[in-house]
Amino acid sequence: MNFALMAPGAVKVVRTCAAVRPGEQVVILTDVAVPHRVAEALAFAVAAEGGSAVTVTMPRPRRPGEEPPPPVAEAMKRAHVILAPTSLSVFHTAAARDAVAAGARMLAISECREETLIRGGIDADFAARAPVAEALARRLCGDRLELRARGGTDLAMRLGGRAAVANTGLATRPGTRAGIPTIEAYVAPLEGTAEGVAVVDASVAVLGLVAAPIAIRFASGRAETFEGGAQARALQDLVRAAGHPNAFMLSEVGIGLNPQARVVGRIIEDEGTYGTCHIALGSNTHFGGRLDAPLHLDMVMWEPDVIVDGRPLVRGGRLVEEASS
Q1: What are phi and psi of 83, to 5 degrees?
Q2: 3-118 CATH fold
Q3: Which key words tag this protein in UniProt (predicted)?
Q4: What are the distances in angstroms from CA 152 to CA 144, 198, 235, 258, 302?
Q5: Would residue 117 be called left, alpha or beta, if left means φ above 0 and alpha means ψ between -120 and 50 degrees?
Q6: Theoretical Cys-Cys bridge with 221: which of 55, 75, 192, 245, CB 3.0 to 4.6 Å?
Q7: Burial class (CB in 10 A: 0-12, 13-18, 19+), 139
């Protein structure tokens, strides 16, 4: 693919979303399953802003949320900025948490391909959309959350007043991180409270686009059954392979807010697509939860209704406040 086509997106990531400044040390964290031109495009953009980029290439992670090798984690802690175009997400890792705690700014570009920097979600006006995500995060706080969607999802859970998080696609201040090109608001439900069924009909991290809906039945917060054909079995095997009981626990509910994003089979764009919501299994300790697991697996569904304490926040995938304005 033409290297020049990635340049505008790479510059947007570096200049707008990470706000790289002259003299800053930037670690570009990637792995062998990501096209090398992605890291090259980002490195050129860093140099254009006066920063100094070092590309660190690690083996492909076995699952999203798996910890990077220790030398990689050390490099992350020493950086001013971390740009992470990886084949699977490193956003939900202790290495990312520790690097941000040390003052780094981090942008995760999970399941990244060259197209990620060329078209789709990367075309969003992240600064303009940030207040929308922040406002929804404030409203996504209460005691009881109900989630229903056109495919048959019917879930209820408690939030216990936990604060939600706005992912704006911007990490411009020390000690902040975001995924890009996703824009979303998300929350960690109280552990063990989710009851009902989630029907995933858009995409799943690692597996990509869903060919046939996957029905996951929850009891006491735990995914008990996976129904729906070959991908349902593959999903169950992936969760089981993590080898940890918390990998089966519902850990997140998020709402996509990027109007430029499309569901394309790459989770970092899919989960941020306006008109969708997503749930996750596995870890959530870095955004207010108590589930520690070597996995964080996002799953996306179309046209949700989201109700908190009886207040509709989203109807058919559209924000109630935006629809009425």
Answers
A1: -110, 125
A2: Thermophilic metalloprotease-like (3.40.1830)
A3: Aminopeptidase, Hydrolase, Metal-binding, Protease
A4: 19, 7, 19, 24, 10
A5: alpha
A6: 192
A7: middle
